[in-house]
Structure formats: structure tokens, C-alpha cells
Amino acid sequence: MNYKELIREAIKLLDMYEPHKQCVDTFIEDSAKTLVNRPSAEQIFITDTVYGCIVHQKLLDIVINAFYDQKGKYFLKADRNQFVVVSYLAMFHLEDLGLEQFSTIIKSMDSSKMYKFLSFFFNVTNLTTWIHGEWSQLYDATYVERKWIEPLLRWQTEVEGLVEYLEKKTTKGSQPKKFPKKSTEPQEFDLTKPKPRPLPAPELIPQQEKPKPVPASTHRAPKEQWVLEDIKQKNHLKAQKVLYEANTQQFRCANPQKSEKTKNIMSQIQQNREAKLKFDSIYSSGTPATHKTNSLPIRLNTAAIFREGAFYNRQREEELNRLERLMQGASEPSAFLQWQKEMKEKDLQEELAQLERRRLEGKISHEEALLARQRVLELNQHKAVLKKEETAQLMRRYAEKRLREEKEMKELVQMVADGHKNSKAAKVKLQEIKKHIVKEVSEQSQELLRQALEEAQAELSRKFELIRQIRAIESVPHLSHKFLDDTETGGHELLCEMSLAELRERLARLKEQEQREQEKRRQRILEEKQSREQQLLEQLDTITACRTAAGLATTQKQDEKKMRLKLKEAVSTDERVVALQKTLEMKQQERQKRKETEKAKSKLNEQMAAQNVKTYSHKKQVLEKQHWLQLEQALEKQVQREASRRNTSGLIQGIAI
């Protein structure tokens, strides 16, 4: 049995399997159909391997994922199913295969990959620590220990030799092959023989060419220079001639000297202008008007007229109301004010009482809120106690449920383990049942297809008959012309139904009615316009009357002002007023004189004070001089005394000696 091909076929089938789209059993059946050409033993080996890898995918993924995370970082994801197959065979079929067949399977694969995977999978620490823990999360710990961990540890010592063999093979394959060194043998150089040098060709003697003669134009002056000089001379002569003519024929067209007539006219015009000037005359404009009347008419629009008319009407009504109240005898407001004061005091008392009530109500509501809060806290505490009791009861129920589930899980694991033992017989039986079901389904489907075909045939014949009838109806000719009578109705049997002639008549009547209404509206608008114009004229009359009254009032006020001014002038010309003015002037002059005398006195006092200061300073200087003289004299006397004392002391000492 070529295990290399079998393993490759199993890996290929695993790559083709899609768990989200295919069922395991159907996939195994389909794959078994592809393996018909192989012997039965090979078919069973491949199908069992593929089925076991798919069923135990979660169990195998734990090892494969950890291997890729730790040591298989540089391996391709395409090699994943290869490691899955090897791990499945090591876990479930190592005892059935034996070490020899297992080693042949491993040797048929890549040695470096198998070395790394087997050294990782059959590591004692990995098997006893995290692999055991991860598998125990899926199955019972005792079952995992008894079913997988112990057999793998038992085979670990024997697999160790296979791992060492793979290690040697990988190390040998990685070392470069050493080839024997060949000694170099010297050989002669294959050199080409040199050709003899040819003789050099003789050099040619250079010959000098004959030079061309110098042209005659080289030493001759150019013609253009003579031409330019000639033109320049002609232009100079022409300019001198023009200058002479201009100087001799100066101001022939206009004479700058003025004639006597023009001079006389100009002097006369100047005198007339000077006569009109009046520098010494006294010009005074009249006194400005105190009130300038604007004689320009003001054009008012409709809104302004109505506004001003309403204003004057309001003033008139207010004046009439005031007069009526006076005629009726209006009462004094003292009683009303007293009543108003009493009512204000009463309202204030009520407001204060209401404020006091609100304050007390606020305090009461605050107390009630505190009591309600205490009640809510007590209720929450009671609810919390009940909640704790409920949670404790739920936890007890959950613990009991968890124990039951664990017990059921153990039983299920045991059942699954027992089921794996009888899997082959169950598979054969399942295949027979499925074959029987397929036969029944195929017979039923054939019967259903036959019935559907008969129904489709009947439906098609019915449609053909219907189409034939429609075509026969369409082939019958029908009249398309229709006569119209204006007086006939549509025949819909409605109350509002009418003929075309009646409709036209009604439309004509409606148009006439609209025209009459339009004429009425026009007439009404004209009447409103005329009434409005009449109202405007009345308003303008009232406005002009009011304005004239206001103008008369202003003129009266101006007359009163003028009278007051005249009275003031008359008062100013009165003798008493004049006498009083004179006395006032005398008093003012007297006050002015007193001010002047006071100023003179103050100046004299200042001068006297300055003179006193000068005399005082002079006296002070004299006294200071005297004082200094006295001090100097006293100092001289003291010096003389000390000198006399020294002399006397010296004499006494000399005598004593």
C-alpha cells in the first residue's frame, strides 16, 4: 500500500471540503464515488481518515493552531491539512497502524516539516500541560487522560527514535556536499605568431600655392563718404538761406503796435468799469424777518390727509368731552385718591398674607418630601433584600442545573465513544438506507415529472384554443364611423347629465351673468371712488380751517410779544427807572474805586515789607560782622595766653635745671 499517495489523496479531499456549503455524510459519499477505481482497503483508509479529520476538527485545531503560532510561522497555510492528517493518525490510529507503518507514512512526507511537528506534538510538557487543559474543555478530563494522553505518552519513547532519524536526515540535507578538489595542471599558452612589420611609406613634400593679388579697392576711399559730405554741405547752405529770409521778412503778417483809436476805446472801457465800482458806499441789507412764512404749497397724499384729519377730529372730540364734563360738574379727585390709597393698603396686606402662606406651604412640602424620601429608602432596602434572596435562589438553581449538565455531558461523551467503536458497521448500514431512499426518491420524481408534463401539455393546448378564438374575433369587421347628435345625452343615466347643446346654452348664460356682475363691480368701484374723493375734500376743508385758526393764534402770540417789547421800552424810559440806573452806576463806580484803593494799599504794604526785609538783612549782616570780629579777638587773646604760658613754663624749667 502506497501511503504517500493515500495521504496525498486525503489531503486533497480535505482541501476540497467546504463546511458551510456541504454536509459531512454527502461529502464522504461523493468522495467515495471518486475512489471507485482504488481497492476497498485504500478507499476505507482514505474515507475514514477524511471523516475523522472533519469530525474531530475542533480537537485537532487546538494542536495545529498552537504549532503554527509557536514553531510553524514559516510554514505555508496550504500544509495545514497535512499536519491535521498526521495528528489524527497519531491520536486515533497509531495502535492500529503500528510504528513501522506510521514511520513509513512520516518518511514519505517532507522530513523537515515532520521533524518540527512531531517534536512539538510528542513533547511531554506540551501533552501534560496546555494540550491536556485545552482538550479537557471540550471533553471530560478523565476521558481525555485515558483516551489520548496516556497512549501518546506511551508511544512517545518509540516515536523519539523516528524524530531523531528525521533530525539527522534534515541536518544531512542542509549540509553542502563536499567534492574532491582537482589539482591544476599547467598548460602552454596558445599564442599567435607575430607578423613582420611592413616598410613605412615615404612622406609627401608639401607645395605652396600661389597667392591672389590684392584688389585695387582696398587702398581707395569709399564713394559713400563723398556723397554724405556733399549732402551735408547742401543742407547747411539751405538752412542759412532760410534764416536770412526769416530775419529780413519779420512780422509782415501782423503789426504788434496798437493804433490811437484802439487805445482810446480801451481807456474808455477801463473808465466805465472803474466808475461802476463803489468801494466807499455803505450797503446794508434789511433786518431779517423774525418769522418767515413759507408760501410754497405742500401737496398731501391721501394717507397724510386722512391722518391729519383724524388728528384734528380727535382734538375736537377731546375738547368737546372736556367741555361736557365741565358743564355736568366734575367731582374732585380727593375721594378717589383716598379710596385708591385704602385699596392699595388692603392689597398689600393680602399680598403679605399670601406670601406668608406660601412660605409655610413650602416648609410643609419640604417636610413631606423628606418623609417620602425616607419611605422610598426603606422600600428600596426591602426590595434589595428580596433581590438578594432571589439571586441566591437562582444561583442554587444554576448550580444544580450545571451539575445535571455535566452529568449529561459525561453520558454523552461515553455514548459518543461507544458510537465510534461501532462506526464502521453503522456507516455500512447508513449507506444501504441511503441507497434505498435514493431509489424511492428517484421513482417519485419520475412520477412527478410525468404528471407535470401532462399538465403542461394540457395548458398549452388550452392556450392555443384561446388564441384561435381571439384571432377569429379580431378578424370580424366592425363599423368605426359614429354619428353625433347635439341634443342627445351620453346615456350614463346620471341626474347631472346634459347634452352638448344644453351645455353650450348654459355656458352662454354664465358668460352673460359674469358680464353683468363685472358691470356692477365697476359701478360700485366708481361710487366708492367718488365718495372717497368727497371725503378727502371735506378733510381738506377741515384741515385748512384748522390751519388758518392755528395761523391766527400764532399771529396773536407775535402781537403779544411785540406789545411786551413796547412795554419794556416804555418802562426803560421811565424817570424812576433812569434814576435807579444812575444809582446803580454810581454804586458800581464806587465799588470799582474801592477796589483800586485796596490794590494801591496792598502795593504799598508790599513795598514796605520789602524795605523792612532789606533793612533787616542789612542789620543782620552788620551784627554778623560784629560777632565775627568779637570771635576773632577772643581767639587772638586765647592764642596769646597760651604762648605766654608756654614761655613761663620754659623759663621755670630752665631755672630748675
UniProtKB/TrEMBL annotation:
Listed A to Z, the keywords are:
Coiled coil
Q: Where is this region: Disordered?
A: 173-219
- Coiled coil segments of this chain: 338-365, 500-535, 580-614
Composition-biased stretches, type Basic and acidic residues, lie in 182-193
Do you know which InterPro entries this protein is assigned to?
A: CFAP99
- Give the protein name, as stated in the record: Cilia- and flagella-associated protein 99
Annotated organism of origin:
Pangasianodon hypophthalmus
